[in-house]
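Batch manifest line 431
LIGAND: adenosine-5'-diphosphate
JOB: complex structure
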Amino acid sequence: MSRVLTNTIWLAAIGLASWLVIGPLAAAGAVAVLAIWRMAGHERQLVRLTAWAEQPLGTPVPEANGSWSRAFLALHRRASKAASQREELREMSERFRLAAEALPEGVVILDQRRNIEWINPRAELLLGLDSLSDVGMPVSHLVREPEFIAFLEKQKATGETSPPLLVRPVRSGGRMLQIRGAPFSAGRALLLIEDLTQLDRLATVRRDFVANVSHEMRTPLTVVLGFLETAHDGMAHASPEEMEHYLATALEHAHRMQRLIEDLLTLSSLESDSAPPQDAVDVAALLAGVKQDTLALSAGRHVITLENSGPATLIGNGRELYSAFSNLASNAVRYTPEGGQITLAWRKDVDGRASFTVIDSGIGIASHHIPRLTERFYRVDRGRSRDSGGTGLGLAIVKHVLERHQATLNIESKLGVGSSFMALLPAQRIQ
Ligand code: ADP
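JOB STATUS: finished
ARTIFACT:
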């Protein structure tokens, strides 16, 4: 039986009993008082319920008695369930926000009118935008490149995922960006932005490198081929002196190609081998070998001295260090006119480091060239480098070897006075 019916029956029973005991008038008064008292009780609970409903979300449901206690309990359960759903939703949106912020790609959400609705920090960086001031702004007012605007319009018109756009927006500070656009709920669009600057740079370096190598190979190959073709056609008219000259020139160019290929192979192995095998290198023997090569290359045209006051043993790769040190020494010979001075010096630094320095009294280098000397094929004077047997790869090899030994190259030079190339090795490599 429902509680309402029970209460009504109780009230009727009390009224009837009162009628029999105290007479109809008094009974009617008693029932009226009882009914008013009960109504006041309901009114009080209703006021508490209204007051609770006006409290902020999450305020605990007040306690009640009688039939109200069940209503309050049901409300309490519903309120707790809503609170936990709200918390789950909050956690989910927080997780989404953190994930979007951690994405290596830039993400921009555009509304139906292509105003910025939301932007992650990566997109702020890549597009040079500020979420505080730019959210709500039309994206085409901020990123104004015509190809980007055409891309946006096309995406909006088709409502489909558009093919990626490669663009260098002014606001991105020269970055090469790849932008993809995809439809997103209710006419919105999602832009995904990737920074391809590094890849683009690598592709350019690779293209330049292939072009440089081809260019370097073409001249000697043409000379050798020219000689071979002439020989093939018959050199009956050539005098023995001319023959000797042609042969010498062809041989010189063949050697040049050989040196180029050897340097390219050295560079390639330096770039692909992860860590070189490490030995305890006997520095005195290494220096003696370098000096020997330098004397041979100079063929008595320079005064060459070796100073050795540095540590006797060095931890590193002997073959690679030999190649780096002799490259520095051979440059000194090749860029120092006859009669010049060349010093090879192995010294210990005050803070435990050691240095190998090649000082020459040669032609010197203008200061603006110095930062670029270790680039592959960078030469101050192409003709001079070639005439002296250079490949343009020597200092690139030196740089790689030193990097693999955590060492640095310091270059000082004065045009017409001479140069100093110092390889500085860290203390932990010294025994
Ligand atoms: P290369 O085979 O042309 O010598 P490197 O990479 O060894 O190539 O050197 C790059 C350039 O640096 C050279 O072409 C030359 O212009 C300059 N250079 C290197 N060493 C010296 C030096 N000791 N004196 C003057 N110029 C030098």
